[in-house]
Amino acid sequence: MSTITVPEGNPITPDLIETRAPSKLPAGHSVSPDHNLTPQTMCPAFGSLRVLTRIDGVQTAMVTDTGCLYGLTFVTHFYAARKSIAAPAFGTKELVAGNVAEAAIASCIEASKMPGTKLVAAISLCVAETAGLTEEMLPKQINGVDVILVRVPAYAIHSHPEAKDVAINALLKRYAPAQAEVAEDGVERPLTYDGSNEEEEALRRKVIMLGEVFPADPISVDAVLKRLGSGLAATLPSRNLDDYKLARRVGAIAAVHPFYGGSVATLRAAGVPIISGAPVGPEASYNWIKAIAAALKLDADLAERVAAEERDKCKAVINQFSLNGRVMVCGYEGNELLYARLLVEAGAEVPYISTSIQKSLYTAADEAWLKARGTREIVYQKTLEQDVRALDRYKPDLVLGTTPLSAEAKQRGIPGMYYTNMLSVRPLFLSAGLAGTIQLIRDALERAPRYAWMREFFEGPRPPESAPAPINTMD
């Protein structure tokens, strides 16, 4: 096979190059299904920047090369915040000279001087990490302002949801560290609350919800928790830096998204009870409310009544707006399994789910639940090409996916919606979050004939389809 030699002398064979020439693609494809070469996401460091630039009093100092700085500054201002980002003049000269730490400190000093700064977050990307920037190289404070290091090289952090966890965990390690007491046997144990302070006692009956959620969700969750004699103390990530300092003092942490593994580990080490899962749909809402009550040692009979009432409300919504159709759920937000559970309980068939996050202990329960109810594939750290191949295998009635996947589905006459902008901007939890989402999905499923008509109008009748290939469902 002939090769192409690029200027650096690296041989590239034609079969490694993705081609989008229509004549070379399988019929009906606008994206090559044969290679996983399409860029899958922006730099994951955006997740950390998204969290940190939104916190009042936090000033970021990005330690990276000028190219990464330009791209990340643009998307951060576009999506997240109107806030300056300090950065060193960091290029090949500084890297070769070994001045990475000095450049980072200079950038932190600049950030510390900005008005209203309470904390400087030094964000270390690929180049700085490769050069060896460590936490010990940075001072704990500059000009009386706290400094933390947030390490998010793209070669180690593979999705922007997981980069959010890195940022929040860095804050928790500084502001909610594990405090230990040494027992008589010399063993360190988490410091326990002795019940001598009324304000602390009230906090110990409350919950912090860990997960970037739609603003209406904390309101509905707080209302249900107050019926139990509890309530929400805060939701992380938060715009208020003081909320992170509460994390070790509350009665429990509800980690409603499965990718906050580092933050959960830090809080668990601090002795805070952790409730995983989320109140999505009838069954999960019932179990979640009972788990909260158990963790906080609240009245069990009252918890049973509240949980059962919420479960019945969820069922009533589903009975009114039930779904009928096959849906693929393919996002990169990290909450795809939660939405899939909701759709399945509402009557939809969800054979295929893909997400950008890694498989973990915190995805296991939802994965088991979904596979027991007909889901055949759940793909972690997915690629666009895997999702395109799934279109061929499962022939869905609706695709909830990334922008390119939704475009690919529409080109085939299948209704498609951009997962992030259409679903992640809607309430999801408890009965209050069901109706809007289910109605949206039902309306989209009912539009399938229009998509088929448009495709036929522009391209003519479809050729008869061959029998689908058998699917290996073994893990």
The spatial strand order of the largest sheet comes to 15-14-13-16-17
- CATH class membership of the largest domain: Alpha Beta
The figure for the number of domains is 3
Q: Which consecutive residue ranges, at least 5 long each, have pLDDT under 50?
A: 1-23, 471-475
Main β sheet profile = 5 strands, parallel
Q: What is the percentage of strand-forming residues?
A: 5-15%
Helix percentage range: 40-55%
Please tell me the overall pLDDT.
Answer: 82
User: What would CATH call the homologous superfamily of the largest domain?
Assistant: Nitrogenase molybdenum iron protein domain
Estimated structural class: alpha/beta
Radius of gyration: 25 Å
Overall spatial form: globular
Distance between the termini: 35 Å
**Topology-level CATH name of the largest domain:** Rossmann fold
Return the CATH architecture of the largest domain. 3-Layer(aba) Sandwich
Count of alpha and pi helical runs: 19
Question: What is the topology?
Answer:
Layout: E1 4-5, E2 11-12, H1 45-53, E3 58-63, H2 66-79, H3 92-97, H4 100-112, E4 119-124, H5 126-131, E5 141-142, E6 145-151, H6 160-175, E7 180-182, E8 188-190, H7 198-203, E9 207-210, H8 216-227, E10 232-236, H9 241-245, E11 252-255, H10 261-269, E12 274-276, H11 281-296, H12 300-320, E13 326-330, H13 336-345, E14 349-354, H14 364-371, E15 377-379, H15 384-394, E16 398-401, H16 403-411, E17 416-418, H17 419-422, H18 434-446, H19 448-459
Parallel strand pairs: 3-4, 4-6, 9-10, 9-11, 11-12, 13-14, 13-16, 14-15, 16-17
Antiparallel strand pairs: 1-2, 5-6, 7-8
Helix pairs in contact: 1-2, 1-6, 6-10, 11-12, 13-14, 15-16
